[in-house]
């Protein structure tokens, strides 16, 4: 196993970064199609095609998920992924064209790089073209390249977030994988120790600013509206209905609640997609339990793997000191 979401059969991942913009995008391909559900828990989301995933609606399979920086501008990356899939003759057959279904979510990363340089359709196409099964870097990679965390006391106190992925084997050949981009307004803590791994950091005093304590004292956040979110995907080699996939996405949000303080705020757009790629039926609660664990691992991997960039400190740069 590679220790990432591509351990789930049928899943490929491709990443692209733009160094000038300090931004990037991540394509999660399921070329054979996968049942998909979504749970949007934050109040400042940037998404595309999520309505199609409602269990009452007709479309029941997707062909990729796009995760991207660039705020709402970054939704363009999904167009490039669609173009790549169409060239591979992949999509819903309408009789006159095959239309790839590519739900997407974006994060705000415009303030540490050039805000005029954002993920484009061309970058999405390249990420899809790069998609493969195997190892890829975590941290400052793909959609996590410009991700930051700990902005509740103001963006000047932020630290690097990033992209992280993990996988886990369950019973009866079940495999669950997660990939996530951590760009939260709050602090990231290890749920087993409550140790702060990344968050609001006062460089001058070389000390943490506890985001929850700051909110209690000051009543409101100094973060900018719509500039934070955690977005991710869980994949499982199980047979799911859209309703079951949505429920597992809801359960997986528990991982965010165990690692991000505060979470699901008015300033976050927290969004989790769930993909079912297999034919074997497993209990939904069992899949949800494993999905929560593997998402926790992915979140911690994201911040621990991130590197200092554009003057923004990271887990490795702070703890080396």
UniProtKB/TrEMBL annotation:
* SUPFAM superfamilies recorded: DmpA/ArgJ-like
The protein's name in its UniProt record:
Peptidase S58 family protein
Its domain of life reads Bacteria
Identify the InterPro entries for this entry: ArgJ-like_dom_sf, Peptidase_S58_DmpA
Which taxonomic lineage is given here? Bacteria, Bacillati, Bacillota, Bacilli, Bacillales
In terms of Pfam families, this protein maps to: Peptidase_S58 (PF03576)
* CDD domains found in the cross-reference section: nylC_like
The family classification in the record reads: Belongs to the peptidase S58 family.
Tell me the Gene3D superfamilies matching this sequence.
Answer: L-amino peptidase D-ALA esterase/amidase
